[in-house]
Design brief:
With about 375 residues, this protein is mainly alpha-helical. The protein has 14 helices and 2 strands, in the order ααααααααααααββαα. It has a single domain (about 40-370), classed as Glycosyltransferase, CATH 1.50.10.
Length: about 375
């Protein structure tokens, strides 16, 4: 009898302990869920941080170049937490307007194509009742002069053809700047069949590791994974480096930039180039790093990831293993765990200016703008 009583007591205590542990586990899960910031909360903290960083000129990181200001303004306006009449926006746009020259763009900036492209996006976001129509129109025409084509003696058979660099006639074209160029032209109303965009698509296609009719470069078939590299010009270059046989390694941030650009330029999901890019992405889907570059360029990667997947128009993405991802939730989680207490983001791997919290917070804010669920 005493042994039975002891056993019953032991079993009862065990069940009670398990119940306590289960409740504790559930409570911990609830606390974690409650602690996870929402898109709105993260956005508001980021907006407050950027407000605090505006300098006396009206810009951000103006000691570097006006392109950072243009990116911050675009991010603030796309956050939908700030309007075009907000004093910070008015002051920032006035700073950019003072840099615009007779040619119609920000030709005096250190990187005129890059800066004008992003500035046009900012002015377009703030273009209430046509206030900036003329400025945007002139800016588009200026951007077209930044494109490498017959005007610079580069025909379709030249690897420079259709691309845009940071700016200036000695500026070699690259996919990052060409992607911003395309985005600016399309966002401000240029149709996909415009000659400038058709030319740009030729350059973008040549930056893809996909041997065939759209990429005639000698390295195109050596990797042939559907991903993208930094530039096809001057024999090609990839920040991710070369393979032993001279191939150019693809990396994810350029692949998302390439995919976004192809869709902007009118390609659809059934195009072989789009399919190949999607296959690369499926094999390298992650928010832990910028595949191919690790932590370098991580926040640039996040905003291209968000823009490209939003343009595909689907709420989920299936990776190569068959796992279905809610890409917006994945992106929000990745940004949430990296946001600093003051609302900023910064990349410890300081490459491509990602040690500048103004630039990086703008990238993150742009990514969050695309992470909002569709209404």
């Amino acid at each position: 009898m005493p042994m039975r009583s002891t056993r019953r007591r032991f079993l009862g205590q065990s069940v009670q302990a398990m119940a306590i542990l289960t409740c504790a586990g559930r409570e911990a899960s609830r606390v974690r869920a409650a602690a996870a910031p929402t898109v709105v909360e993260m956005t508001e903290k980021a907006v407050a941080f950027l407000r605090s960083r505006q300098d006396s000129k009206g810009g951000w990181s103006t000691e570097r170049e006006p392109g950072v200001t243009a990116l911050v303004l675009t991010a603030l306006l796309r956050s939908k937490r700030v309007t075009s009449s907000d004093p910070a926006i008015v002051k920032g746009l006035a700073y950019l307007e003072h840099i615009i020259e007779a040619q119609g763009g920000l030709s005096g900036a250190p990187h005129p194509n890059y800066t004008t492209s992003i500035a046009l996006m900012a002015f377009n976001e703030a273009n209430i009742k046509g206030r900036y129509d003329g400025l945007i129109r002139d800016g588009r025409e200026f951007l077209k002069t930044m494109q490498w084509d017959e005007g610079e003696g580069k025909g379709r058979d030249n690897a420079f053809y259709g691309g845009a660099g940071y700016g200036g006639k000695n500026s070699r074209p690259d996919l990052s700047n060409t992607a911003f160029f395309i985005e600016a032209l399309r966002d401000t109303g240029l149709p996909a069949d415009d000659p400038s965009l058709k030319k740009a698509l030729v350059f973008v296609s040549r930056c893809q590791n996909l041997k065939g009719e759209f990429n005639d470069q000698s390295w195109a078939g050596k990797v042939n994974d559907g991903g993208f590299v930094y530039t096809a010009a001057n024999g090609g270059e990839s920040i991710a480096g070369k393979t032993e046989d001279g191939g150019l390694r693809s990396y994810a941030s350029m692949t998302y930039a390439g995919l976004k650009s192809m869709i902007y330029a009118g390609l659809t999901a059934d195009d072989a180039r789009v399919k190949a890019a999607a296959t690369y992405i499926a094999k390298h889907y992650t928010l832990d790093e910028n595949p191919g570059l690790g932590q370098m360029g991580l926040y640039y990667y996040y905003q291209t990831f968000a823009k490209a997947l939003a343009m595909l128009g689907k709420p989920t993405f299936t990776d190569a293993s068959g796992q279905v991802h809610d890409w917006r939730a994945d992106l929000v989680a990745a940004l949430a765990k990296r946001q600093n207490r003051d609302g900023s983001w910064v990349n410890p791997a300081d490459r491509f200016m990602e040690g500048d919290p103004n630039l990086v917070t703008a990238y993150a804010l742009l990514a969050l703008a695309y992470a909002r669920p569709k209404a």
